[in-house]
Fold this sequence. Notes:
The protein contains 13 helices and eight strands. The protein has helices at 2-5, 11-41, 45-65, 100-110, 139-143, 152-168, 183-197, 205-221, 230-234, 250-264, 268-284, 288-308, 312-326; strands at 72-73, 85-88, 93-98, 112-116, 123-124, 129-135, 171-174, 242-244. It is flat and about 95 Å long.
Amino acid sequence: QVALGMGYYGSGGRFVLFLGTVVVLVLLLVTLVQWVRTLSSLGRMSNTLEKIEGAASEALVSYWRSPLLGAGPAPAVAEGERRGRPVYARRVAYVRRIDMDALQAYADDNEARVHVRVRPGALVYPGAELAWVEFDVSDEELAGTADEDAPQDDAADDAIGESLRHVLDAFYFGAERSFDQDPRFGIIVLSETAQRALSPAVNDPGTAIDVMNRMTRLLIESQQAKGASPAAASAAREHDRVTMVPLDEPGLVFDGFAPIARDGGGTLEVMLRMQRLLSMVAASSRAGTVARAARDMAVRAHAVGKEHLAVQADLDALDAEHRRLFA
């Protein structure tokens, strides 16, 4: 303002200053509108469900692209025939994430193979086996430069124990589960939202139906994402010295739909929608385990509905829908 009063700017300068002021005001106005819109959506159920669905979708797509986190399948070895040393958990916690790159680097450096026995999302306790490490060299060779005056067995055990701490460090623990490497967690969180909606205090079957729609979309579309084919999954092995136990894929279906069937068994519209959605999953799933689980869940939900629906007309409608879809 002082510069303008002194005539510091010419006509061209004043015009540029005017345009700059207008641009700044427009940007401020747009930012304010966006912020108000964000504030208005915070706390809405639809906004919460979208965020949960987004996180669950990323985890599921990542799973179908690499079901074993880039590792190989766990070997089929009887418990008494295993070679190697176990790595145990030291506290009660959830496995939130596993650093597969660190395990591969450890295995390369120590001429070993790391067989991971838990997946992210598992609740472990002190003494629970996280992994077992199979060394290509003998215990004596692994002891390396251990004290020559110490008994050889003790030297080897000390060296191996120190070495296995690096394996334990590749496991990240926490009091709560994480979406990152845990595809079942997102389904569980969505299902819990539906359970609360079906509680007598809320009695909102519409939200439960919305949640089931989202779970169905997740189960089907995540398998159809780019790079999520079985061939791509089999070629996704990046860690040739690490193996991983498989995910309980039927749990993707049962974790989501079984609690809703239990709490919504007496609500006809919920049970009818569940039958239709499970038929979609059974028909569209590329994974046979998920398709079979959807059919089994439909039978289970049908049985729950027959126990809870009090009106004969509702029972007849559920029977007819189940026979139409799964006969």
